[in-house]
Write a structure and sequence with these properties.
Mean pLDDT is 77; it is low at 1-9 and 15-21. This protein starts with a strand and ends in a 16-residue tail after the last helix. A two-stranded antiparallel sheet has the order 1-2. It contains 12 helices and 2 strands; from the N terminus they run ββαααααααααααα. A hairpin with a 6-residue loop joins β1 and β2. With 279 residues, the chain is an all-alpha fold. It is globular, with a radius of gyration of 21 Å. It has helices at 25-32, 35-58, 63-70, 73-83, 90-107, 118-141, 147-168, 171-181, 184-216, 218-225, 228-240, 246-263; strands at 2-5, 12-15. α3 runs parallel beside α6 and α5 packs antiparallel against α12.
C-alpha cells in the first residue's frame, strides 16, 4: 500500500494496487468499492444509528437533558484517542472534566426532573456512543476524501436507511394517516423541520465539520460541540417552556469554563506525525 500526500491539499491519496488486496473474496469486493463510497456509507450508518437513538430518547426525556447527555461524546472521543496512543494536552483533559461536571449538574437539576425519564436518558447515552464513533471515523475519512464527496454519500446513505427503517417498522400507514388529516399549518411545520434537519443539520453542518475537525482535531472539537446544550437549554426555555434552576445554570457556567480552557490550550504541532498527533 502506497500513501502519499498531495501538494494541493492536506488529504492523502491512497493507491491500493490489486496485488496487495486480501485474498478473501468479500474483503476484495469491499476494496474494489470507491473510497468515497466506503467512507460516506460508513459515516451515514453511524449517523443514522445515533440520530435514531437520539430521537427516541428525546421523545422520552426533556430537551435539555437529551442535549447534555449527547455531550458524553466530549469524554468518549478523547478517551478513545488516548487509548489509541494519541497525546491529549492536560488542559484538554481538565476541560473535559469540567464539561462532564456540567453534565452532572444539569441532569440533576430538580427544576427539569419532572420532564425527564431514565429510559429516555439511556437512549441519549447510546446515541452519544454512536456520535462519538462518527466523529472519530470522520477524522479518519476526512484525511483521504474531499468533504463534498464524503458528505454527499453520507447524506444519501442516511436517507436510504431512514426509508428502510420506515418500511420495516410499518410506518407507512402512520405517515399516510398523518398527511391525510394534517392541516396546512402541520404540513408547513413538517416541511420546515424536514428542510432544517435534512439540509442544515445533516448536510451543511457535517460539511463544515470535516474541515473544522481536521484543523483542530477531534478532542478539541468535542469541547466546541459542548456549547450545543447551552443553546438547547435556552431554546427549550423560550419555545417549550422548560425550566432551568440554579443547579442547571451552574452546569451551564461550568461548561463555559470548559470551553474557555479548550480554546486557550496549546496548539498542536502541525509538523508532527499524523499517526500519533491529534492533528
Amino acid at each position: 500500500q502506497k500513501i502519499e500526500t498531495t501538494s494541493s491539499s492536506n488529504r492523502l491519496n491512497v493507491d491500493e494496487p490489486a496485488k496487495s488486496m486480501p485474498k478473501n473474496s468479500l474483503a476484495q469486493g469491499m476494496m474494489n468499492i470507491p473510497v468515497n463510497i466506503r467512507g460516506g456509507t460508513e459515516l451515514g450508518l453511524w449517523k443514522f444509528l445515533g440520530t435514531t437513538a437520539n430521537l427516541y430518547g428525546l421523545s422520552l426525556t426533556s430537551a435539555d437533558h437529551g442535549a447534555f447527555l449527547i455531550q458524553l461524546t466530549t469524554l468518549i472521543v478523547p478517551s478513545v484517542q488516548g487509548i489509541m496512543g494519541v497525546p491529549i494536552p492536560q488542559r484538554i483533559w481538565t476541560a473535559i472534566a469540567l464539561a462532564m461536571s456540567g453534565v452532572y449538574l444539569f441532569t440533576q437539576d430538580p427544576a427539569s426532573a419532572g420532564n425527564a425519564s431514565l429510559q429516555g436518558d439511556l437512549f441519549c447515552v447510546v446515541a452519544a456512543v454512536f456520535y462519538a464513533t462518527y466523529d472519530l471515523r470522520l477524522f479518519k475519512w476526512g484525511k483521504i476524501i474531499e468533504p463534498l464527496e464524503l458528505i454527499t454519500t453520507k447524506v444519501a446513505t442516511q436517507a436510504a436507511l431512514s426509508v428502510v427503517a420506515l418500511v420495516v417498522s410499518n410506518g407507512w400507514a402512520d405517515a399516510a394517516s398523518f398527511f391525510s388529516s394534517a392541516s396546512s399549518d402541520d404540513l408547513r411545520l413538517v416541511t420546515y423541520v424536514t428542510l432544517w434537519s435534512g439540509f442544515v443539520v445533516n448536510a451543511v453542518a457535517p460539511y463544515l465539520q470535516v474541515g473544522g475537525q481536521q484543523a483542530v482535531g477531534p478532542a478539541r472539537a468535542q469541547i466546541v460541540y459542548a456549547s450545543q446544550p447551552l443553546w438547547a437549554a435556552l431554546m427549550s426555555l423560550v419555545f417549550l417552556g422548560e425550566t432551568v434552576g440554579v443547579q442547571g445554570v451552574a452546569g451551564g457556567v461550568t461548561f463555559l469554563g470548559a470551553m474557555f480552557l479548550a480554546a486557550t490550550a496549546d496548539v498542536p504541532d502541525p509538523d508532527c506525525e499524523v499517526d500519533i498527533c491529534e492533528v
